[in-house]
Amino acid sequence: MNVLEVKGLHKKYGSRDILHDVNFHVGLHEIVGFVGPNGTGKSTTMKCIAGLTEFHQGQILIHGHDIQKDRIAALSEQSSFIEGPALYPELSGKDNIKLFASLRGVSKERVQEMIDMTKLEKHINRKVGQYSMGMKQRVALAIALMSKPKLIMLDEPTNGLDPSGILDLLSMVKEITQTEEVGFLFSCHTLSDVEKIADRVIFIKDGSMVDASTYEQSQKISYHVKVSKKAHEVFTQLGLIYQYHDLFQAYTVEIKDITLDTLLSALQDAQIEILEITKIEQSVETMYKDIYHEES
Ligand SMILES: Nc1ncnc2c1ncn2[C@@H]1O[C@H](COP(=O)(O)OP(=O)(O)OP(=O)(O)O)[C@@H](O)[C@H]1O
């Protein structure tokens, strides 16, 4: 079962349409990166899912519970930190965690398990006000996880972290996704961070989802093709953009208007044997630039 399903979500602030027809899902043990420029509606979508703001149309199911029909059951299956972790700076890391644990009826054993999992033991008795941003994020993660939610949402979790803090947090999220019964939705502006951990990336543009699969199909796809002899003529006749790499005796070919089958049979007709063919995956950054027509 998916831990989150968002179907046809519409949201207005006043008379202004902010989200129109937002659709996506997050699976169990899956990390979904939520990407889009400032103001496209990522935080608003997350706030709708976290029950922090109303929406006007659509359906949100958290681990199968409808947030409108079965609000308490749905919201108790999720945990989120949107716009930074809200912690008590005068309390120690441990007291912050214990405070939330007592409010949620979480056992001492689970509290200790969370401290171990987020590698906080060494600093746990220091005041949170003296923590680095990375340590605050880890406390927030421990709090988010303690009641065993099926869905965790992180809004810009790497903001304000130094490179090693980012790597620590990302590897922790990756590990947690494998060991706990949970799925993550996280928004992030740093595309290289998204690429490091996301199993899947979803794009939002002007309050609507970009259908990445349709988008990919409509775009050029590049293949790495190793052939038995030079095939410049075949590629030129088909009007393809190609590059020959002497070192590998192979081509990079972009295909847009013709199908791969057309290319393969043209090579066959020219009695050129295909020794190897692999699709070159588009990076998140390339897709981002193509979708938003701007620098990432
Ligand atoms: N409380 C509010 N009242 C009115 N408009 C709002 C409110 N919150 C957000 N908006 C507007 O909704 C749009 C989407 O904002 P949102 O914060 O969801 O974008 P975002 O993609 O998360 O951007 P960022 O990456 O900057 O956080 C923006 O135009 C914003 O100005």
TrEMBL record:
<dbReference type="InterPro" id="IPR027417">
    <property type="entry name" value="P-loop_NTPase"/>
</dbReference>
<dbReference type="InterPro" id="IPR003593">
    <property type="entry name" value="AAA+_ATPase"/>
</dbReference>
<dbReference type="InterPro" id="IPR003439">
    <property type="entry name" value="ABC_transporter-like_ATP-bd"/>
</dbReference>
<dbReference type="Pfam" id="PF00005">
    <property type="entry name" value="ABC_tran"/>
</dbReference>
<dbReference type="GO" id="GO:0016887">
    <property type="term" value="F:ATP hydrolysis activity"/>
</dbReference>
<dbReference type="InterPro" id="IPR051782">
    <property type="entry name" value="ABC_Transporter_VariousFunc"/>
</dbReference>
<keyword id="KW-0813">Transport</keyword>
<protein>
    <submittedName>
        <fullName>ABC-2 type transport system ATP-binding protein</fullName>
    </submittedName>
</protein>
<keyword id="KW-0067">ATP-binding</keyword>
<feature type="domain" description="ABC transporter">
    <location>
        <begin position="4"/>
        <end position="231"/>
    </location>
</feature>
<dbReference type="GO" id="GO:0005524">
    <property type="term" value="F:ATP binding"/>
</dbReference>
<keyword id="KW-0547">Nucleotide-binding</keyword>
